[in-house]
Each structure stands twice: as structure tokens, then as C-alpha cells.
């Protein structure tokens, strides 16, 4: 029973770390959007950046759910300069986030970025888009079980 409590505690700690990582990544997205929108000359750039950063926390949707249609609307309205600028801001945000995400998430939850990535991909293949939400959670629970079993197996009092 003690092992189960320890697994549960470590899993909760990892999930808390995951949400902390998501907030850090959303803050990074917010800063990049603010800079990009300010340079482009978007009205109310801070408020719009905040709204998109909040949407960016949702794993499957991300900032593209707002940025892509926004750029397309400007493109079809003939505002091609703004459309390309919005597209460039979106690309920069995605590239920076894709580089930062494994490191920030891995550091916060204690799971190597590659394992988190593999877990997310496998869960997406099994559960579809819902798998993107539970992939990191599965990696956290597997890591907690592994850690508890390793601690138990390394305890000399358990060897007899």
C-alpha cells in the first residue's frame, strides 16, 4: 500500500509540474506574440496576445486555431502584407515553442523529453486527439512507478 501512495504522490507532483510547464510555455508564447504584434502594428496587441496565449494552453488546438484563420482572412481580403506577417509570427512562435517544449516539460515533470514525446505519440495513435492530453500523464505515471520500484529494489532491507 505504501508503494501505491508513493506512486500516487509522485504522479501528482509530475502532473503539477506539467501544468507549470504549460504556463511557462504560454508565457513564452505571450511574450513572442506581444513582440510580433507590436512590430506589425496590430491594435490592442497585448490583449490579443493574451487571448491567443490562453488558447495556446489547450494542447490540441494551440495558437494556430486563431492565427491561421486570422492570416487567411487578411489574405483573402487583400491585406497580403499583414497576412504574411501574421503567418511569420505564427511560424516563429511554433518553432520556438517546439524547441523549448521538450526541455521545459522534461525539466518540470522529471521525464526525459524523448519519453514524453513517445508517450504522447503512442497515446495519440491509440486515443486520437485525446491522446495528446493524456500522453504526458501516462509518461508521468510510468516514471512514478519506475522510480518507486527502483527505490524499493535498491533498499538493502528488501533484499532478504
UniProtKB/TrEMBL annotation:
Chief location bin: membrane
Source organism of this protein record: Carnobacterium inhibens
Matching PANTHER family: TRANSMEMBRANE PROTEIN, TRANSPORT PROTEIN YTVI-RELATED
Keyword Transmembrane: yes
Membrane-spanning ranges: 21-41, 47-70, 82-100, 115-142
Keyword Transmembrane: yes
Cell compartment(s), UniProt: Membrane
Assigned protein family: Belongs to the autoinducer-2 exporter (AI-2E) (TC 2.A.86) family.
Protein name, per record: AI-2E family transporter
Topology of the protein relative to the lipid bilayer: Multi-pass membrane protein
Pfam family of the protein (one): AI-2E_transport
Keywords per UniProt: Membrane, Transmembrane, Transmembrane helix
Amino acid at each position: 500500500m505504501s508503494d501505491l501512495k508513493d506512486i500516487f504522490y509522485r504522479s501528482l507532483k509530475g502532473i503539477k509540474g506539467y501544468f507549470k510547464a504549460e504556463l511557462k510555455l504560454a508565457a513564452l508564447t505571450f511574450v513572442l506574440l506581444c513582440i510580433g504584434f507590436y512590430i506589425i502594428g496590430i491594435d490592442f496587441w497585448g490583449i490579443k496576445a493574451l487571448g491567443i496565449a490562453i488558447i495556446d494552453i489547450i494542447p490540441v488546438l494551440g495558437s494556430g486555431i486563431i492565427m491561421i484563420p486570422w492570416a487567411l482572412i487578411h489574405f483573402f481580403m487583400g491585406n497580403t502584407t499583414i497576412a504574411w506577417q501574421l503567418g511569420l509570427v505564427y511560424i516563429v512562435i511554433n518553432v520556438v515553442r517546439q524547441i523549448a517544449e521538450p526541455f521545459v516539460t522534461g525539466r518540470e515533470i522529471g521525464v526525459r523529453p524523448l519519453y514524453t514525446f513517445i508517450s504522447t505519440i503512442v497515446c495519440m495513435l491509440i486515443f486520437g486527439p485525446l491522446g495528446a492530453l493524456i500522453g504526458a500523464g501516462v509518461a508521468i505515471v510510468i516514471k512514478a512507478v519506475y522510480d518507486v520500484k527502483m527505490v524499493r529494489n535498491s533498499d538493502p532491507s528488501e533484499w532478504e
